[in-house]
C-alpha cells in the first residue's frame, strides 16, 4: 500500500517492474526552536543508519519500522538534551 492509499509508512523493500528495491540507508533530521527570555535558539541534529544485508536476507517492514522509530527517538532525544543543557546553563 502506498502513502496515497492510506499507509502511514512507505514500503521499503518492494518489487517494482521485476526488480527488488532495497532500503540501504535511513536518515533523520530533528530540529526545534525555543524562546528563552527574549532570545530564540534553534537546535538541529541529524543521524544516518546504514542497513547491512546478510546474503539475500532482507529486513521485514516491521524491522525497518523499528530502525526508523529508534532513529527518530535518538534524534529527538538529542534535541531535548541540547535544549535542557541550554536552559540549565542559563539558570546558573
General description of the model:
This protein starts with 13 loop residues before the first strand and ends with a helix. The model is unreliable at 1-8 (pLDDT under 50). It is elongated and about 60 Å long. The chain is built from one helix and four strands. It has one domain (23-91). The chain has 92 residues and is of the alpha+beta class. It has one helix at residues 61-91, and strands at 14-16, 19-21, 25-36, 39-50.
Order of helices and strands: EEEEH
* Through-space gap between termini: 52 Å
How many β strands by DSSP? 4
- The overall average pLDDT, rounded, is 84
What's the story with the biggest beta sheet?
A: 2 strands, antiparallel
- The residue ranges in which pLDDT falls below 50 over 5 or more consecutive positions are 1-8
Write the layout of secondary structure elements.
Layout: E1 14-16, E2 19-21, E3 25-36, E4 39-50, H1 61-91
Antiparallel strand pairs: 1-2, 3-4
Brief digest:
The chain is of the alpha+beta class. It contains one helix and four strands.
Task: Describe this protein with a few key phrases.
92 residues, alpha+beta, two-stranded antiparallel sheet, 1 helix
Amino acid at each position: 500500500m502506498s502513502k496515497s492509499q492510506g499507509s502511514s509508512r512507505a514500503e521499503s523493500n518492494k518489487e517494482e517492474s521485476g526488480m527488488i528495491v532495497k532500503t540501504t540507508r535511513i536518515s533523520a533530521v530533528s530540529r526545534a526552536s525555543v524562546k528563552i527570555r527574549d532570545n530564540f535558539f534553534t537546535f538541529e541534529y541529524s543521524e544516518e543508519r546504514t542497513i547491512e544485508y546478510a546474503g539475500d536476507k532482507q529486513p521485514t517492514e516491521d524491522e525497518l519500522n523499528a530502525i526508523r522509530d529508534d532513529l527518530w527517538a535518538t534524534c529527538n532525544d538529542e534535541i531535548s538534551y541540547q535544549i535542557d543543557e541550554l536552559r540549565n546553563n542559563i539558570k546558573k
